[in-house]
Amino acid sequence: MLGLQSCLTLRKHPRLSFFSKIMACTLTLDASPPVHRWMGTTLQRDAFKKTIPVLAARVPASKTGSLLKSDVMKKFLMDLPKVRGVLRDPHDELERLVLLNVTQDAALSSEVRNFLQEQSATLVVHNLNLTYDYWTADEILHSILPEELCKGSPSGFAITGHLAHMNLNKEYLLYKHIIGQVVLDKNPMIKTVVNKLDSIDTKYRFFKMELLAGEPNYVVEHHESNCRFTFDFTRVYWNSRLHTEHDRLVQLFQPTDVIADVFAGVGPFAIPAAKKGCAVFANDLNPESARYLSQNIVDNKVTSLVRASCEDGRDFIKKVIGRARHNPFPAHTGPKLSRMQEKEKRRLRLAISSPTGTLALIDPSTVENQSPRQTISHFVMNLPDSAIDFLDAFRGVLLESANERDLSGNYANMPMVHCHCFTRELQPDKAKADIIRRVESKLGHQLDTEVALHMVRSVAPNKDMYCISFRLPRDVAFAR
To answer: Which residue(s) pair with 227 in the sheet?
Structure first.
């Protein structure tokens, strides 16, 4: 009878000849775990044991390399993952056992037999003893769960620090704890496994979750984009799948820019932007997010470049332009200098203050531009469920900060707005039309030509996440 692995091999190669299929079956060992669908919801690791008798070529240690490099032997050498192909002979320390992927010598071709004879090899039987530790999480779960649930893969998860976050479909909930335990066992870096619940905190937008396995420790330390983030996963919003989107937006920013992060969370946009040299006003309504944001600002040594606040996003939009004008960030001084560069910088400063004649030796490009940064370059609005609803806060935003004459000069170029949102329209053209219509409705004005739409990810079968980037229309910012 064909083993599971053999059957999979044949299905992947439907055009193999009959003889080739027989050879494929002969040369493929059934290393699948034993089926224990009786196990139900309690994991019994000791039940997972399997012994596979395989042939091994016993050869002098000096002959091992010849077997492993031989083209004749290539198809017959042991190829199971996590199984050593060469072992010491327990009866003779000068001999080695080269494991083969067959169980009977009849499966060996005459060419292989002749080669082994030339190498002074003898065939012996070696028992491969596989235990729970050998198989993957998918393999274990497929041998436990009811057969009708094996088509899907309930072992998928996202990792945040030491925590694995699952989103199990309802048909797997009866087996959620055994699934969590298997995931914990098979991933040594994971200490806690949780499952997201359907309920969501309506005010602060973080998901509620339940512990499936491991330690009830939800304060994680997560590393992303050369930054370190600490936060309580049960009290703030974080999505590791947005790493690429975080990087994408930060790459759009220039080091001299000033960023207003309206829904900053614990800082996945704000802190990498500050590491790049940007000045950032970072805000979040959730006090826990704001608290961890402040901690992450300190931990990542960007205290001079990020100012945290905890207020409603609409209020933040209306006030942040005035804050930038009345309390601007210092000028961008370039990338962080090495010790040698700092030493050279001090030398140049001394040269500037030295007697006449020295200044001619100084490169003018080394003298820093001292103009403070007073103008917001980008607004980031990463709250896809409702960010569009906050766009009306931009109406008259420059008039509320100062008189029109004062700020129209500062904002010769209006800031870019990067607004994340969801849409049920799955076709790109319809999605674009839907999002632009909703944005223009909230702004009360048509968007200008500088508009870009980026598809971030699919979050459900009929729901996609996008980021629309547009230049804030001047008529909106100065609307009365």
So the answer is: 224
Res. 149 pLDDT band, cuts 50 70 90: confident
- Cα(301)–Cα(422) distance, rounded to whole angstroms? 34
User: Mean pLDDT, to the nearest integer, of 173-182?
Assistant: 94
pTM: 0.78
Average pLDDT on 365-385 reads 81
The dihedral over CA atoms of 321, 325, 326, 329, expressed in degrees to the nearest 10, equals 100
Q: What pLDDT, on a 0 to 100 scale, did the predictor assign at position 449?
A: 76
Residue 146 pLDDT exceeds 60: yes
Mean pLDDT of 159-171: 92
Residue of 181, 183, 98 whose CA lies nearest to 138: 183
Task: Name the token pair of 479.
Answer: 């609307």
Buried b vs exposed e over 187-209: b needs ≥16 C-beta within 10 Å? eeebbbbbbeeeeeeeeebbbeb
Q: How many residues does the chain have?
A: 480
> How many Å apart are CA 73 and CA 294, to the nearest integer?
62
* 262 CB burial (10 A radius; 0-12, 13-18, 19+): buried
Greatest distance between any 2 Cα atoms in the chain: 96
Angle (CA) 144 150 154, round 5°? 85
Annotate 274-334 with DSSP letters as a single string: HHHT-EEEEE-S-HHHHHHHHHHHHHTT-TTTEEEE-S-HHHHHHHHHHHHHHSPBPPP--
Helix, strand and coil in the chain, % to nearest 5: 40, 25, 35
Please give the full DSSP string across 112-151, using - where no structure is assigned. Answer: HHHHHHHTT-EEEEEEEEEEGGGS-HHHHHHHHS-GGGSS
% of the chain residues with pLDDT over 70: 85
Give the chain's count of helices (H) and strands (E): 15, 17
Q: Strand pairing partners for 453? A: 468
The pLDDT tens digits for 306-327 are 999 999 999 999 999 999 999 9
What's the pLDDT at 333?
82
Q: Phi first, then psi: give them for residue 131, nearest 5 degrees.
A: -125, -175
459: which DSSP letter? E
Site of tokens 């968007």: 447
* Sheet bearing 49-60, strands edge to edge: 86-89, 92-99, 49-60, 122-131
Average pLDDT across the chain, whole number:
86
Q: Residue 100 gets which letter from DSSP?
A: B
**Residues forming a β-bridge with 219:** 232
Residue 259, pLDDT score: 98
Only one residue has tokens 């980008």, namely 378
At 176, which helix (H) or strand (E)? Answer: helix 176-186
- Write down the pLDDT at residue 199: 62
